[in-house]
Write a structure and sequence with these properties.
Elements: H1 2-16, H2 20-38, E1 45-50, E2 55-65, E3 74-76, H3 77-83, E4 92-96, H4 102-131, E5 137-145, E6 150-153, E7 158-161, E8 177-188, E9 191-197, H5 201-211, H6 213-216, E10 220-228, E11 232-239, H7 246-251, H8 256-264, E12 269-274, H9 279-286, E13 294-298, E14 303-308, H10 313-317, H11 322-331, E15 334-339, H12 340-346, H13 354-357, H14 362-371
Parallel strand pairs: 2-3, 7-9, 11-12, 14-15
Antiparallel strand pairs: 1-2, 2-4, 5-6, 5-8, 6-7, 8-9, 10-11, 13-14
Length: 381
């Protein structure tokens, strides 16, 4: 048995990366427990597993004491000197107590320990692999569904897609391939537990990094994302090279790049705007596709008042206020939208800087909207 066990441990060390010494220590500890359980022994014992010569022995360990309180744990100095005259008080006397049929029990115990340690090692490797992939996008296959969760196979592990991380407009079918975003990896007694999402803004970020080389290379940076999953999203981008158009890079020729992402998200509209450190410009861009006449900034309240043409008020606000709500999330500024007529009646428009920042001809404005991949013709409905 010892030779077979040794061969098995060597093979495991090569295949699974589990140290042979660690396994031997674990087997010896388990054999101590097995000895006490199977032979109704309560004394302090040690198991010596020597795979080189095939021996397996059990030794009782007793402390040398002046007064023996428990003969299973203690031995008198007089009795100890009969074993070896060199023993002194406080030493430990070891005597072999290996049972005759201990080999059978040892074989069963060793098999159980090795199996358990291999399982633990595999779980540890899987955990380390996926914990390094938190906040990353992976391909998976829908394996099964229950009343709340969807379970997605990622190859070595089954991930959980909770109901609050599912896009409500999507239907998930068994064996369907989907891209998911890893939000959290936990170590549990049953192995690593991976949680994924289809609604997280990080999914949108990773999709753009995969589809747009300029983002992957760091030439274009995604500054912020506002997302209402399954319906509409806005992202702000900036180029670190003056020769690169950040919005055009993300949109692609004839909208090819962004359309690929829209298709992956089953028709979710994506509004790409250029980021600016100037809140006046950034808020105006964020309200795309609406034309903006003026943005008045109130620094203390971190809010803005935006003036738009009367005929574009509903477009600026969006269906159920969605366009304005996403623009506010994207910029981090509160946005109060006024029509041109109302703003003039309140005496807040025109302001001194209105024509400076927003003197766009209709033709130029339409060109900007086309570049921004206009998907919003129903916003005024």
């Amino acid at each position: 048995m010892a030779n077979e066990l040794l061969d098995a441990l060597i093979a495991l060390e090569k295949q699974k990366g589990i140290s042979r010494d660690v396994l031997i220590e674990a087997i010896e500890a388990a054999l101590v427990t097995a000895y006490k359980r199977n032979f109704n022994q309560a004394q302090n014992v040690r198991v010596d597993l020597n795979l080189d010569n095939g021996s397996m022995k059990v030794y009782s360990r007793k402390d040398v004491m002046e007064e023996v309180l428990d003969d299973r744990l203690h031995i008198s100095l007089e009795d100890a000197k009969q074993v070896n005259p060199a023993f002194e008080l406080g030493d430990i006397v070891e005597q072999e107590v290996t049972p005759r049929n201990f080999g059978r029990i040892a074989a069963q115990t060793a098999k159980q320990v090795v199996t358990q340690r291999v399982r633990e090692a595999e779980r540890g490797l899987i955990y380390e692999e996926y914990v390094d992939r938190e906040e990353d996008i992976v391909n998976g296959v829908v394996e099964r569904l229950d009343a709340r969760n969807i379970y997605v196979g990622l190859g070595k592990v089954e991930a959980v897609l909770p109901v609050n991380e599912q896009i409500q407009t999507e239907t998930y079918r068994p064996h369907e391939r989907i891209k998911v975003y890893i939000t959290k990896v936990e170590r549990t007694t049953r192995g690593p537990q991976v949680f994924v999402s289809r609604t997280h803004p990080g999914l949108l970020r990773r999709l753009f990094e995969m589809e747009v080389p300029e983002i992957y290379d760091g030439i274009v940076e995604i500054k912020s994302i506002a997302r209402e999953a399954g319906d509409r999203s806005k992202i702000s981008v900036v180029a670190h090279n003056d020769d690169v158009d950040p919005v055009g890079s993300c949109v692609g020729a004839k909208g090819s790049r962004v359309q690929t992402i829209v298709n992956e998200l089953n028709g979710e509209k994506i509004d790409i705007v250029e980021w600016s450190e100037d809140p006046v410009v950034f808020v105006a861009n964020a309200l795309s596709p609406s034309k903006v006449l003026d943005v008045q900034v109130h620094e203390e309240e971190k809010s803005t008042t935006v003036v738009v043409p009367d005929y574009q008020l509903s477009l600026a606000i969006g269906k159920r206020g969605q366009n304005a709500r996403l623009a506010a999330k994207l910029t981090g500024w509160k946005i109060d939208i006024k029509s041109e007529t109302d703003a003039r009646e309140l005496g807040i428009y025109p302001s001194a800087h209105a024509s400076e920042n927003f003197d766009l001809e209709d033709e130029e404005y339409e060109e900007n909207i086309d570049d921004n991949f206009d998907l919003y013709k129903d916003d005024e409905e």
